[in-house]
Amino acid sequence: MPASYAYLGPEGTFTEVALRTLPEAATRELIPYVSVQSALDAVRTGDAEAAFVPIENSVEGGITTTLDELVAGEPLTIYREVLLSITFALLVRPGTKLADIKTVTAHPAAQPQVRNWMRAHLPDALWESAASNADGARLVQEGRYDAAFAGEFAAARYGLVPLETGIHDAENAQTRFVLVGRPARPAAPTGADKTSVVLWQRDDHPGALRDLLGEFATRGINLMLLQSRPTGAGIGNYCFCVDAEGHISDRRMAEALMGLKRICLQVRFLGSYPRADIVPGGARPMLPGTSDQEFLAASDWVTRCQDGRF
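The structure assignment produced for this chain is given below.
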């Protein structure tokens, strides 16, 4: 397989900036793709070793395009995540003034992060979505739009100038990106890990979602993301994308996944990988009765009872 990483392009995206923070990116060919789907398909077809794509932002939650691609199609696995603080610049062709701007563009995920700024400074401007923020900058360069919301670092690459900088509606906004590859053995646990799965209910009944969440709750596993996505099988048919604290090699996580496998129509394991928001050893303390040692002790006790050694 080629030593290359696909990423949501073109050059100059926040995705590229986040990708270059990974040490291994320096030893790979970084290839921009026009969409999340095409980047992930490059991994599925063997054209790339891995793909790096946005999956969640702190303003709008999960990036549905990425989640839907991971839910459907040939299985893929998440190996790493990166958090990047996001602030936008308004990029324009040289000589453009704020009063000249009638049309603006950016990736759809950017709109909720600049909506209030637009309302205050460009109330009459028409918004059109682009495949990525950098692609929006390219379209401004070509004269198709008057301005684009993108990273300030993209200005020079596309012959634009930042008319305004530091644009964000929410303080400390962040986007989470993931490195996705073909299924393989997860990396060893670090003590500060995350496990991602997709769950399909066996049937729709009162308390069905509670039953799924109960497999985590009874084992003291904290959930970090829970987002429903339509299955395409009709109104009311959903699967659930879940991020949970812990690693599949943890006894409590393994037992939770076994419980989910028993009661769900389908479970798709998306990977266990190091968390980007905390360092190893910095995870929240486990609840009493949820450590590996306590699970092993309980298992040994059951075995003794079965043998009449209680």
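Interim note for the steering committee: Residues 297 and 310 are 13 Å apart (CA to CA). Residues 292-306 form the longest helix (15 residues).
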